[in-house]
Amino acid sequence: MESIKAMFWKPDPAAQLRKCNQLIRKNTRELDRHVVNLRQLEAKTRSLILQSSKSRHNTPQQTRTLAVELVRIRRQSTRLTTSRAQLQSVMMQVNEAFSVRKIEGSIRASTSVMKDVNSLVRLPELTGTMRELSQELMKAGIIEEMMDDALPSGEEELDMDEDAEEEVDKVLSDILAGRMQKTGEVPSEVPAAVAEPESEPFADEVGLEDMRQRLAILKS
């Protein structure tokens, strides 16, 4: 019935606007869920770093590996937070476009919305729902048809750039310094493992693997 109506009547602008806003809110909730999970994962990784630094059975490199993973988690969280802001910008511009349509009787394509949508559709966390939103925005005439190369070809890895080493050093310094303030311990080197005769063996490999699995689930 709807398809027959579509052949004779133009889409209802109010219905189109509701649909677009529903999809934007859906994407926003999805990003919020991922950010919350990443914050939980960040807290767990901080705990693993502290445990690793106290164990006599781990090397400083193992502790540093955990710090690298923590930097990756934080970068991904920042990326998703930025994407959420982009979504809110898209919502405001979409609402503005429909308001102008009421006055002028027509709608104009927005290069700004097009740019944000192209960026958001590449996110592995939003691939499916952003495709649906882009289709609705194309139907409404707010964006033009996207090229195939604008769509995601697969999951993008978070590469550690040349500034990562400094960022990892800062992470270790902040976390281990906080531990020293609480315990009064002074490690022989940072981020060297702290010798504690009574400490229990810490299964770093198991903890790190568990953390990596959780991060992989968040990306999937």
Description:
The structure is a single chain. The chain is 70% helix and 0% strand. The protein is elongated. The model is unreliable at 148-158 and 180-204 (pLDDT under 50). The chain has a single domain (2-153, 165-219), classed as Ferritin (Up-down Bundle). The chain has 7 helices and no strands. It has helices at 2-8, 13-54, 60-104, 111-120, 127-140, 164-183, 204-219. The two termini are 37 Å apart. The chain is mainly α.
Work out the radius of gyration: 24 Å
Low-confidence stretches: 148-158, 180-204
Given the structure, what is the number of helices? 7
Structural category is mainly alpha
Reported by name, the CATH topology is Ferritin
Q: What is the CATH architecture term?
A: Up-down Bundle
Quick one: overall form? elongated
Whole-number average pLDDT?
75
The biggest sheet, with number of strands, parallel, antiparallel or mixed sense and barrel status, is: none
Residue fraction in strands:
under 5%
Helix content: over 70%
One letter per element, helices H and strands E, the order comes to: HHHHHHH
Total DSSP E strands: 0
* Terminal Cα span: 37 Å
Number of domains: 1
Look at the structure and give the CATH class: Mainly Alpha
